Amino acid sequence: MSAPKQMILPKTKIHQVANHVHKIGFWRKTEDEDSDLPWPGDFIDEDWDSIMRRAVAHYLGRVTVSSQDAVTVVGHYRGFSLCRLCGKANGSQDYSDGQYYWPQGFSHYVKDHAVRPPRKFVQRVINWRRSRNLGEL
Ligand SMILES: [Zn+2]
């Protein structure tokens, strides 16, 4: 039994972000690549509640401008990232809500592959929906 996998990356990985910002949803290229990045297949949870899963995927993909809880585009790449699990072209930008930082394609992993983000992030989505009166999950 190996140590529990961590989806949140150490601050030094990929590019630097502000100290309080957590990076999630960045993966190594192949399952057996020698890398400190996590593998999305280690976070698949097919039993995860489908309504919650859709709500989280929606949150990850909601890019907005100029609101106090905005999700904004904070990084661009020249090419598309390929989904590590199915190979489809999967985004070329990074998003942030000010507290978390994730690649555009992360919502695809959540929606289509049941990759489950860290509990604290899911709680953040639940709190956000509550604050917007979008309904309880
Ligand atoms: Zn995929």
What does this entry look like structurally?
By secondary structure, the chain is an alpha+beta fold. The protein has one domain. 24% of the residues lie in helices and 11% in strands. It contains three helices and four strands; from the N terminus they run βαβββαα. A four-stranded mixed sheet has the order 1-4-3-2, with no helix packed on it. α1 runs antiparallel to α2. The chain is globular and about 45 Å long. 28% of the residues are buried. The mean pLDDT is 87. Bound molecules: zinc ion (ZN). The site of zinc ion (ZN) has 7 residues, from α2.
Number of folding domains? 1
Overall residue-averaged pLDDT value: 87
User: Count of DSSP helices?
Assistant: 3
Q: What compounds sit in this structure?
A: zinc ion
Strand content: 5-15%
The low-pLDDT segments are: none
Q: In one word, what is the shape?
A: globular
Main β-sheet, spatial strand arrangement: 1-4-3-2
Helix amount: 10-25%
DSSP strand tally = 4
The largest pleated sheet is described as: 4 strands, mixed
The span between the termini is 33 Å
- Kindly provide the radius of gyration, computed on alpha-carbon positions and rounded to a whole number of angstroms: 15 Å
Alpha-beta classification: alpha+beta
Order of helices and strands: EHEEEHH
